[in-house]
Amino acid sequence: MKFNMNPIVKPTTTKERVYNEIKKVILNGYISSKEVFTEVQLADSLNTSRTPVREALLDLMKEGLITSVPRKGMSIRKVTDKEIEQIFIVRASIESEVMKKLAETITEQQLKQLKISCDQQEKAMRDNDEVTFIHLDQQFHSTLIHLAGFELIEQILLSFHNLSQLIGLKAIKRNNRMQEVLQEHRKILSTLEQRNAEAAVQTMVEHLQRTKQSIG
Q1: What SS3 state is found at 4?
Q2: What is the chain's Cα-based Rg?
Q3: Rounded CA gap, 119 and 142, in Å?
């Protein structure tokens, strides 16, 4: 049925633009977790009033990306050791099942798609582009879950997305970690290509354990 109506294009508000800009610099690691910043500083930097900045910061606090520092301002939320432990417990449990499923069902076309993702990561590594590398790393893992057909779990893991990016940026600061991650991803693909479920699970668990160890 057609109603001959034009879609409404919602204009982006100042608050939304401010929110997107602040979130981008946080997730890109441009603000250190040791820094304390204020509404005034951000408003001056963005050349806007304090109101949209305050509203954006409240939203980012609700998302768990920033925290209030009494009488000083705001800072990037530090992910605790306990939270890191829980995130990796969940990921290891889920992604082990993903490996079992994909070892039986993955197609040549899907393997090719994942290999392209690894090639893109290699380019980001050569460019020393940590932000793109982490984005592609998350994309690689989320693609595996999607290809396994675990749609509900895929949605659940989205709640970890922001924290996982903060953790990932911290992990790859270690010397050669980007190269190690790339090698581990290619090894995961090799086990899937061989349809070896046991080796695929072991390789994935070892990969996640190494990433966790890199954070310390």
Answers
A1: coil
A2: 20
A3: 17
**For residue 38, what are its two tokens?**
């204020």
DSSP letter for each residue of 51-120:
HHHHHHHHHHHHTTSEEEETTTEEEEPPPPHHHHHHHHHHHHHHHHHHHHHHHHH--HHHHHHHHHHHHH
CB 115, CB 144: distance < 8 Å: no
* 3 state SS of 155: helix
**pLDDT of 136-161, one tens digit each?**
999 999 999 999 999 999 888 887 88
How is residue 204 written in tokens? Answer: 């994935």
d(CA 104, CA 123): 30
* The model scores a pTM over 0.90: no
